[in-house]
Amino acid sequence: MPNTSRFSAKSVQRLLLHLLCLVPAAWLFYLAATNGLGANPAEALLRSLGDWAIRFICIALAVTPLRQWLRWNWLAAYRRMFGLYAFFYASLHWLAYVVFDMGLDWPSIVDDLIKRPFILVGTLAWLILLTLAITSIPKLIRRMGGKRWQMLHRAVYGAAALAVLHFWWMRSGKNNFAEVWLYGLILAALLAARWVFQKRKQMQAAAKAARA
Amino acid sequence: MLIRTHNAGFDHGSSSDITPQHLYMSRRELLKLGAAGGSALAVGGAWAQAAKSDGTQPMSTVRSTVPGAISMETPTSFQDASTYNNYYEFGLDKSDPARYAHTLQTRPWTVKVEGLVNKPKTFDIEELLKLSAQEERIYRLRCVEGWSMVIPWVGYSLSKLLAQVEPQGSAKYVEFVTLADSKTMPGLRSGVLDWPYTEGLRMDEAMHPLSLLTFGMYGKTLTPQNGAPVRLVLPWKYGFKSAKSIVTIRVVEKQPGTAWNKAARNEYGFYSNVNPDVPHPRWSQATERRIGEGGLFAKRHKTLLFNGYEAQVGQLYAGMDLRKDY
């Protein structure tokens, strides 16, 4: 039956993408288990997980522009999945901070949050992603309704901006901004692409209206 | 084969400092290798086990008698101490210096000592190596980023060199200028700091016996990534105060600018003494992570005032507000 075969091809595609998204986590787990994280494993793990969190935010935000410009409509089905992987890596990043960097010393963690704004900013970004992840449960999406869900999920731009700010702040004072610029530019380009597409659609609609 | 005696190299101070198993095992590996291949392997004591073709040479040393010079803590492995480095001239990543610093040309090398001194002089590195007995000192090294190591350095008190040039009465500070060679140092392109890297000490800090003019570590000459051929080590200050690959030492009257202070004045003060009570804007300084200790789940250590050298250096800062003069 053609329907079943199409269904299974899609499942294979989905499964492959899941595996691909899990490669960084599996690799880091392997390195951690085999003493391969270098002289300061806690720092290496923390930083790699942070890198992957911001990379997945970029990937999730790239879905719509890619769909619009390259007409890769099949990607749309995976936007939520990439977003959830951003949350997954951000959560591991936060857990690595709490467990390996701070040794679950909660008074010190609270102290850190108050005294070091870059940690507060990172935590806020994670809380936004947490909210978006919870409201991505299918039942809740249906209950919220498409419009409201979409409104709320625009907060991902806020999370992205806070993540870049968090990264910038962490690197400031050591003046090592190359990677911060890279992610900042990617996110700015993705946002600009959306804006350009929107403008173009408006102009096309206006032209259509004028013709009619 | 060179066999070291008690007096010629690192000497374990107590039974708790028994050679770690991995060093012991790798020495056995070396011995097996030597026996099997009949190759002329020189094992220069416990530390030389990791000697590769990194251009380092074994050094003969005496045990230091300077108070506080020998920490009894378990030294960090040579592997960690020579692969996890901040040396921005060779890149911003901790692994960059070990990867790229082999381009550093350490011969010929001279150190110019100038400024408010009666006998300014340019010293050849060979001359510096012989200027005084090379002492082994095991210092705690604390980085401003919140990690620490225990490293057996080789060198002699900086005061021995300064005595040679006779600082004048008006001399209040010492400025250190390090190599900035764009041909061999890819990191200079980054523009992260105002090159060349400079550092400074007050005269009494420079004259303190613990201030070590350093030529080696782990019984061998310094690796390029650790600041060959000559660097400073100031155990009571954050690591960045200990300038690497020094080319000029200038005795001056006014407090000199320092590279990190110029880059971020509010984060890196002139003194930069290790102090658990003065947090860095992005790192609490209350605790530190000892590199190589127990992996991911290792507990952090409490930071000690002056990195644990308060008894030796505390009087240098009597009456000073260390929150203001951080």
TrEMBL record, chain A:
Residues 52-164 form the Ferric oxidoreductase domain. GO terms for molecular function: electron transfer activity; FMN binding; heme binding; metal ion binding; oxidoreductase activity, acting on diphenols and related substances as donors. The chain crosses the membrane at residues 12-32, 52-70, 82-100, 120-140, 152-169, 181-197. One of its GO terms (biological process) is protein repair. Its cofactor is FMN; heme b. GO terms for cellular component: plasma membrane. It is a multi-pass membrane protein. InterPro entries: Fe3_Rdtase_TM_dom, MsrQ-like. Keywords: Cell membrane, Electron transport, Flavoprotein, FMN, Heme, Iron, Membrane, Metal-binding, Transmembrane, Transmembrane helix, Transport. It is found in: Cell membrane; Membrane. Binds 1 FMN per subunit. Belongs to the MsrQ family. Heterodimer of a catalytic subunit (MsrP) and a heme-binding subunit (MsrQ). Part of the MsrPQ system that repairs oxidized periplasmic proteins containing methionine sulfoxide residues (Met-O), using respiratory chain electrons. Thus protects these proteins from oxidative-stress damage caused by reactive species of oxygen and chlorine generated by the host defense mechanisms. MsrPQ is essential for the maintenance of envelope integrity under bleach stress, rescuing a wide series of structurally unrelated periplasmic proteins from methionine oxidation. This is Protein-methionine-sulfoxide reductase heme-binding subunit MsrQ. The lineage of its organism: Bacteria, Pseudomonadati, Pseudomonadota, Betaproteobacteria, Burkholderiales. The gene is msrQ.
TrEMBL record, chain B:
Mo-molybdopterin binds at N85, Y88, E89, C143, T178, N226, R231, S242, A243, K244. One of its GO terms (molecular function) is metal ion binding. Its cofactor is Mo-molybdopterin. Predicted to be exported by the Tat system. The position of the signal peptide cleavage has not been experimentally proven. One of its GO terms (biological process) is protein repair. InterPro entries: MsrP (IPR022867), OxRdtase_Mopterin-bd_dom (IPR000572), OxRdtase_Mopterin-bd_sf (IPR036374), TAT_signal (IPR006311), TAT_signal_bac_arc (IPR019546). It comes from the Bacteria. The keyword Oxidoreductase applies. Binds 1 Mo-molybdopterin (Mo-MPT) cofactor per subunit. Keywords: Metal-binding, Molybdenum, Oxidoreductase, Signal. Its EC number is 1.8.5.-. It holds the Pfam family Oxidored_molyb. Residues 105-260 form the Oxidoreductase molybdopterin-binding domain. It is an enzyme of class 1 (oxidoreductase). The keyword Glycosyltransferase does not apply. Transmembrane segments: none annotated. Heterodimer of a catalytic subunit (MsrP) and a heme-binding subunit (MsrQ). PANTHER family: PROTEIN-METHIONINE-SULFOXIDE REDUCTASE (PTHR43032), PROTEIN-METHIONINE-SULFOXIDE REDUCTASE CATALYTIC SUBUNIT MSRP (PTHR43032:SF3). Part of the MsrPQ system that repairs oxidized periplasmic proteins containing methionine sulfoxide residues (Met-O), using respiratory chain electrons. Thus protects these proteins from oxidative-stress damage caused by reactive species of oxygen and chlorine generated by the host defense mechanisms. MsrPQ is essential for the maintenance of envelope integrity under bleach stress, rescuing a wide series of structurally unrelated periplasmic proteins from methionine oxidation. This is Protein-methionine-sulfoxide reductase catalytic subunit MsrP. The lineage of its organism: Bacteria, Pseudomonadati, Pseudomonadota, Betaproteobacteria, Burkholderiales. The gene is msrP.
